[in-house]
Amino acid sequence: MSISIKRGRGRKYLPALVMLGPLIAFMFIFYAVPFGNMAYESLHSWPGDEKPHVGLSVFQYEKTTQKSRTVKSLKRTFRISIISTIITFIICFPITLLLLRSPPRIKVGILLVTFISLASSLIIRNYGWLVVLADAGPINNILIWLKIFEFPKRMAYSEGAIITALVHYCMPFMILPIYGSLLRIPASNAEASLSLGANAWTTLRRVILPLSMPGIFGGTMLSFAICMSSYVTPLMLGSPSTAMVSQVAAEQIEVQLNFPWGSAIIITLTLGSFLIVFIYAALVSKVMRVDV
């Protein structure tokens, strides 16, 4: 009897295992194995190190936390990523509410613009922002015409330019998860809140926002991960003084051929990102009382 029950359970989960099998294999081959090799490489010495060692050690991680450039780039990366994610959410959440309550034609137009943005090249977008934020670009010209500035202000090749481009790039990844979460909220919930005397702001804060938290969590995590791992955007719109961790790691691996230290920088960035995600998930679960 017990054997037949176990077989029944096995057959029940068999379709899910068959569907997830290719994904698990893909993640193992193209993520877990390279990540493990990189972690193993980060424990070795490099011939150009001040004190080369034999065997495995955490010397490269100690160097990562002691070198001022890597520490500053780590702090800068986390700061830019968090600020970009917050700004993206502030911009995109009202857009999703508008999308939810818009007539079909406007809704199709907003979704079409969102998908077109996803399809456009990142390099083309960055070149576009270089033109817009240039000293002789339209923003500086408008500000000078409005007599806000007397002379052009340096906007490109700065942290502000990086944040602007990252927000633009992350908007579709924030809009779509939140919109999908809002679609699953019955309209009767908001109607019941309003009928019981709550105003629109209270309904949004106490009803809509908590129920849409799974989509908000997904959108913010996607945006944060994209910002943390960005390389092309800070390379094109930033400067050596605004270098992010990905640029420092790429310089060590591609230019200096220092694979152990470059691997240690990447592992440090990855573990730091995971730590922030876990803390954020715990806060959302505890404060909003939502499973994410």
Note the gap between the termini.
Answer: 38 Å
Separate helix tally: 13
The helix content is over 70%
Principal-axis shape: globular
- Total domains: 2
Enumerate the spans where pLDDT stays under 50 for 5 or more consecutive residues: none
Q: Which class of secondary structure composition applies to the elements?
A: mainly alpha
Order of helices and strands: HHHHHHHHHHHHH
**Binned strand content:** under 5%
Largest beta-sheet details: none
CATH superfamily of the largest domain: MetI-like
Q: Total number of β-strand segments? A: 0
In the CATH scheme, the class of the largest domain would be Mainly Alpha
Short description:
This protein is mainly α and 292 residues long.
Tell me about this structure.
By secondary structure, this protein is an all-alpha fold. The protein has two domains: about 1-30; about 40-105 and about 160-285, MetI-like (MetI-like fold, Orthogonal Bundle). It has 13 helices and no strands. Helix 8 (about 185-195) runs antiparallel to helix 9 and helix 12 runs antiparallel to helix 13. The longest helix has about 40 residues, at about 1-40. The protein is globular and about 70 Å long. The model has no long low-confidence stretch (mean pLDDT about 90).
